[in-house]
Amino acid sequence: MELYPGFSLYRGIYEFAQYIILEGGMRWEDLNDSENGMKEVLIIMSLEWLVVLFAAYGIDIVVSLGSGVGRRQSQNSRKNPLSFFWKPNLQNKDSRHHVQMDNADVIQEREKVDQLLHESSTSHAIVCDNLQKIYPGRDGNPEKLAVQGLYLAVPQGECFGILGPNGAGKTSFISMISIQNSMIGLIKPTSGTAFVQGLDIQTHMDQIYTNMGVCPQDDLLWETLTGREHLLFYGRLKNLRGSALTQAVEESLKSLNLFHGGVSDKQAGKYSGGMKRRLSVAISLIGDPKYWIRSSFKDNLWSVVKKAKQDRAIILTTHSMEEAEFLCDRLGFFVDGSLRCIGNPKELKARYGGSYVFTITTSSDHEEEVENMVQHLSPSANKVYQLSGTQKFEIPKSEVRIADVFQAVEIAKSKFTVFAWGLADTNMEDVFIKVSRETLQSNSLT
Ligand SMILES: Nc1ncnc2c1ncn2[C@@H]1O[C@H](COP(=O)(O)OP(=O)(O)OP(=O)(O)O)[C@@H](O)[C@H]1O
């Protein structure tokens, strides 16, 4: 008996090869022949195969933990017959890159998602379950965690607005839950998943696509096709045929003001920027999608969004706070790849906007007097900026009455010239600045 099985294996293979060459081949009945070593070779190869299999599995786990990339959960999870969704793998929630959820509303959203994933039916059009996107490191650059552990539930009939600074991860998020089409650069999640009308984006994107409308930031149009031809093409992709297709195209052209004056039969290349934008919106709404993803880019098509909202879920990304506030039922602030707060515009302003914004312009000689005046009005007032005589302060609402501010300004006007002044309530821009500032502060502490 050999003490070292590897040696035994090589000797076996040698004898085995010799046997094949010299004896003119090997047959199953030769298995019991103690001379040829075939039996030992097969046993040792099977054992080695098992050992290597377990070793490779172990190395794979260690490597994926080390790189922080969570293992994709939904594809491998079993379907719970009682659940509308594929059940999540809770182990995934301990991923190294998991979002730090310190905001009550973000925690609440995660709890809502957890609950929805165990329900047998849902009124929620979109449910994101620990969605994550990591771009691999390239050319010496480290990997980029663009979206981290995102939980979000958007019900039917809601317009959910996503706000955030450049590079916050908005586009990566939108790309994951819309068409995964490499031609227009849309992408697959690294881990986690999202469900659209209960269908998993990882496995059912084709079905989801027929119920989805996407209006990207850039107009993806063919210059030589007319508006009508664009709509006919996309309508067919949405499985519309015959009179249903013709009717949908006409309605779409009319609702976006592209029907009259022969506009619909002009080539898109001859359209103005506004007309191109309207055509992109029409394309994204053809086929009556159940959910709509829209990146707004100075198009002011607010009435279209208001109307579209009635019977579908909308995810809107925009840089316009005014638009977000006007159109969205709830807003999510994205900073550094995760949602930092979620709420309706009024709630957010009440939570983050406990102060008035007081702006005043005088000559530079009177800046100090203005500062003293504000200090007198509210000892904890905070100066936001000062530039050539213009100063901006945040004054806590709890410390000041509007009438006191008016009175103080009137007194100041009797002493020196006040070129302009204003007192404003918190707007979404102030909320946005506060959330971003808080995130930066908490990041610098960790
Ligand atoms: N293909 C990629 N490879 C590597 N990093 C990427 C890739 N795409 C985006 N990123 C990085 O991921 C982060 C998030 O980018 P993303 O475009 O999603 O942000 P955004 O909020 O949409 O920004 P913007 O408002 O400017 O469009 C950024 O730091 C960006 O540089």
Automatic annotation (TrEMBL):
Keywords: ATP-binding, Membrane, Nucleotide-binding, Transmembrane, Transmembrane helix, Transport
Gene name per UniProt: ABCA7_1
Name by which UniProt lists this protein: Abc transporter a family member 7
Topological type in the membrane: Multi-pass membrane protein
Lineage top rank: taxon: Eukaryota
Compartment list: Membrane
UniProt-listed SUPFAM superfamilies: P-loop containing nucleoside triphosphate hydrolases
Stretches assigned to the ABC transporter domain: 126-361
Keyword Translocase: no
